[in-house]
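User: I'm new to structure prediction. If I give you an amino acid sequence, what do you actually give back? Let's try with this one:
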Amino acid sequence: MAGVVGGHALGAAGIAGATPAGGGHGALSRLGLVYLSHLNDPATTSLFPGDPAFTLEVIATIPADGFYMQFVREGEHTGTHWGAPGHFQEGGLLADQLDPGDLFLPAVKIDIRAQSARDADYGATIDDIKRWERRYGRVPRGAAVILWTGWEDKWGTDAYPNLDADGVIHQPGFLLETVEWLIRTRRLDRRGALGTDTFSPDRGIDTDFGVSVALYDRHRISLENLANLGSLPPKGAWVLVGGPRHKSGSGSTATIFGVLPR
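Assistant: Good question. You get back a string of structure tokens that encode the predicted 3D arrangement of the chain. For your 262 residues, that looks like this:
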């Protein structure tokens, strides 16, 4: 990598919270990276209702075995994770069928914290996107469009799923008409993503998962339970999605990086 991604020179200098990608000289030492993932810890990880339990078990120690290792048991969508099209689309691409470019996308961050604080069921509107574009320019084709709802601050508490007495989740997300507009206008193209610091790009009350169904087409993915979005600028950054690619996987628990511009 020549230090330029999508026409943007990248670097850690002057970016609060950014860490250079490597020591020494050259382009990699100038890349600014931030974690956009929560720590994968059974004690603090908020699980989507009905998901399998997440456990970490020490199965080898240095005194006893000469090495240290844990056994990890979790669903593919535990903690911060990404979802592949086959998660909701019958016959959709699965994790092992995606290209590297599907997991490295220009990012835009839409700040809806104020709306979400007033209404836990808030849905991001076309006007929210257009308001962002009046300030920052058109959403790049095939971008990761990320909602910053402020929900990441509730991680690991009962306020994160925000269940009512009937077990319904109350979290903000995208309105279906907004996502259909992003697709129709090719802001979400054959590649792209929706991201959020909640369980899903769908609102919690939208139990038909219409947004996810519309999103998961071609090579489009979801980025869910994101963290540290305050370190991601509204425009100019990229997201790099890591994590294992399971055979026929519907997605994966992931370490997701924000790659920051100078």
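You can read the tokens as a compact description of the fold. Here is one thing that stands out. The mean pLDDT is 91.
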